[in-house]
Design brief:
Shape: elongated
Largest sheet: 2 strands, antiparallel
Number of helices: 12
Strand order of the largest sheet: 1-2
Distance between the termini: 62 Å
Structural class: mainly alpha
CATH superfamily of the largest domain: Intergrase catalytic core
CATH architecture of the largest domain: Orthogonal Bundle
Radius of gyration: 22 Å
């Protein structure tokens, strides 16, 4: 059934050019909010009626989501509630033709600082994932994907979105990031060699318009498969639960910053829209220094 949530999703996809993941998440939040208002107001909710949403309505909705209703609903954490509120605000702004949404202060969320892993652990993680694969080409694939995350700072989605057109490789790689923005990242010789080794082993032709990284049945490799493999490998290596594929990207950024990389250059390499997103890595580096200090100083 088409309604304001569906129309909102079309707007996000076609006019704002948001990723399919963002569109899906925001549409789901909008559908939940419309369902709540329908029950809360006792009337059908359309785009025009959304203009009369007040802060009290938002407060009631968020309370219902945080507390949770029924045995299967445990409620939202503060971080999830804040994301839900952000999506609903965007929905209301769209309904008001980009006008202001009602002012309502959501739950406070402590901003987490990414925790990098050491270069040796990053390589060991990639090697462990590759070695557990029974098929040599699958091991070569996993090694190449994880080296891209750590060696070039790609998001997992960016790596898996690469197509056969990326071949033959040069010294740089064109990457399509969030909101379909492209950037150029340098390829270390080790990363380039890993991708070329995989390309020479994969049992399917790597056509220009087809995914570069393939699953065992020939389709595009799923991010979920990579996450599960990393989860198993980190357990064997005794690494933290926070060691995810995305942690390799964090490690890439933190290690570059620790070696004197300029924040603006790092912003370009990571594909961040604003410098504020990149500045979190200055906190990461400071946190790492404090860890070294506490572990090494005799009076710490």
């Amino acid at each position: 059934m088409q309604g304001p949530a569906f129309e909102f999703s079309i707007y996000l996809a076609q006019q704002r050019r948001r990723s399919i993941h963002t569109v899906r998440a925001y549409r789901s939040a909008a559908e939940r909010f419309v369902a709540f208002l329908t029950d809360h107001w006792g009337a059908v909710v359309d785009r025009a009626s959304l203009a009369r949403v007040e802060a009290a309505d938002l407060r009631a909705y968020l309370a219902s989501r945080v507390v949770g209703v029924g045995e299967r609903t445990k409620g939202l954490s503060n971080a999830s509630a804040a994301r839900e509120l952000s999506a609903v605000r965007a929905f209301l702004a769209w309904a008001n033709d980009e006008g202001a949404a009602p002012t309502f202060k959501g739950p406070r969320v402590k901003k987490g600082v990414p925790r990098p892993i050491s270069p040796l652990d990053a390589v060991a993680l990639a090697a462990e994932v590759a070695e557990e694969s029974e098929e040599p080409w699958v091991g070569a694939r996993d090694w190449a994907v994880l080296l891209l995350l750590y060696g070039a700072g790609l998001r997992i989605g960016e790596a898996l979105a690469l197509a056969g057109a990326a071949l033959p490789l040069g010294e740089t790689l064109v990457v399509t990031g969030k909101r379909t923005k492209t950037r150029i990242v340098p390829l270390l010789p080790e990363v380039r060699a890993a991708i070329e080794d995989y390309a020479g082993r994969v049992p399917w032709p790597l056509e220009r318009d087809q995914p570069l990284f393939r699953g065992v049945r020939g389709g595009g490799l799923s991010a979920g498969v990579v996450r599960v493999k990393v989860q198993r490998a980190r357990g064997k290596l005794g690494l933290s639960d926070r060691t995810t594929p995305h942690a390799l990207r964090h490690s890439f950024a933190t290690h570059l910053l620790g070696r004197g990389a300029d924040l603006r250059a790092l912003q370009e390499l990571l594909g961040h829209a604003s410098l504020s997103s990149t500045q979190v890595y200055t906190q990461v580096d400071a946190a790492h220094l404090m860890d070294v200090y506490r572990n090494a100083h005799p009076r710490a």
